[in-house]
Amino acid sequence: MKIRLDRIAQEPLVSQARDQIVSALHAGVVRRGDRLPSLRQVADLSRLNVKTVLKVYTLLAGEGLLEMRQGSGAFVTAYDPGEFEPAQAVRLARFIRRHLDEASGMSLTPGAYASLITSLTTRGALARQSVVVLECNREQVDLYAEEITRRVGVRTHALMLSDLHGKKSAALLRGSSVLVVTDFHMKEGAAIAQKFRRPIIRLRLRRDFLPTLIDAARRGRVLMVVSSTAFIPAFKKALVLLGLHKEHLERITAVEGSHRPAVSRAAARSDAVYLSPLCDRSLRAEIPKSARLIAFNTHLDADSIEEIESWLLLSGRGAAARKRPTV
Questions:
Q1: Whole-angstrom Cα distance, residue 229 to residue 212?
Q2: Is-contact 15 9, C-beta < 8 A?
Q3: pLDDT at 115
Q4: Residue 210 CB neighbour total at 10 angstroms
Q5: What's the average model confidence in pLDDT over 121-128?
Q6: Which CATH class is domain 129-206+302-323?
Q7: Nearest partner of 286 among 315, 262, 252, 318, judged by Cα
Q8: How confident is the model at residue 79 (pLDDT cuts 50, 70, 90)?
Q9: What span, in angstroms and rounded, lies between the C-alpha atoms of 13 and 269?
Q10: Per CATH, which fold does 13-76 belong to?
Q11: How many other C-beta atoms lie within 10 A of the C-beta of residue 4?
Q12: Residue 64, φ and ψ in degrees, nearest 5
């Protein structure tokens, strides 16, 4: 369609453009999603400058009649953003009914389902809950706790399995919403979860973390800069179980980030350096340009994070509150 704007007419340019678009929609000349003439085309046809036409299009976009797409042009939306087409309303109603039927199969009433939707979208339930991470070493328990706090936005407490006998640890466990533990310590974690009557969720690493370190060790010398090296023997044992040959395993060394001179010396002899998020980021300056930096913003698998988040947001309501399952 052509949009003709008459700058001499008493009717505002925006109204002229709106009337033409609405008339074209009504007559079926254009449909939702159709591209409108470019700013230059309208300007040339109406003998206006491009800035004036852009102002008209921008105002129409603000009304919800047009959509401006960078690099592509202006497209007809036909309806205000808050309104539905009849066909869209039908699809939405079918979508909701389908999910209500599935919720009914889980013994959830429509009211309970609506309440769960509210909890999931507002995330208000997170402020009242907490997570306890159980591990046998300081590096991993602190790393996992920090990441859960950052990604889920919930209070997280790091507890060593060797430090669970004090009153403070017991209070944290009793007040927790869920316990999380790696597969290596699932047996101990399950016993603790049963004792304190808390659900338990397995923590798993992102799939590319260990393969990245294994590949680096096969290629050359690897330095791991961590907050505590106490977990390294067990960590190396896991790498062997995953197929890393012992001669390659010997290429992996570890130093604690708190000893900056040691980091600098070890990094100078390494082909790749893994830097734990728990260590000072300024340690990157100690890594020579010849060495590959291995740094992960996240270490936990997305499914583990989703399980924790979903449980915290949806527990305490409906069927979830009655079952409190072990994940």
A1: 19
A2: no
A3: 84
A4: 15
A5: 82
A6: alpha beta
A7: 262
A8: low
A9: 71
A10: Arc Repressor Mutant, subunit A (1.10.10)
A11: 11
A12: 90, 5
pLDDT at position 85 is 61
Segment 196-223, tens digit of pLDDT? 999 999 999 999 999 999 999 999 999 9
209-294: CATH, from 3.30.460, 3.40.50, 3.10.450, 3.30.590: 3.40.50
For residue 117, the model assigns a pLDDT of 86
Q: Mean pLDDT, the chain, as a whole number? A: 87
CA distance 58 to 79: 15
Burial 292-306 (b: 16+ CB within 10 A, else e): eebebeebbbeebbe
Binning pLDDT at 50, 70 and 90, where does residue 28 land? low
| Measured distance CA(238)–CA(230) in Å, rounded | 14
pTM of the prediction? Answer: 0.67
| Sequence spans of domains, the chain | 13-76, 86-122, 129-206+302-323, 209-294
Provide φ and ψ at 182, rounded to 5°: -80, 165
Distance CA 193, CA 187 (A): 10
Amino acid residing at 16: Q
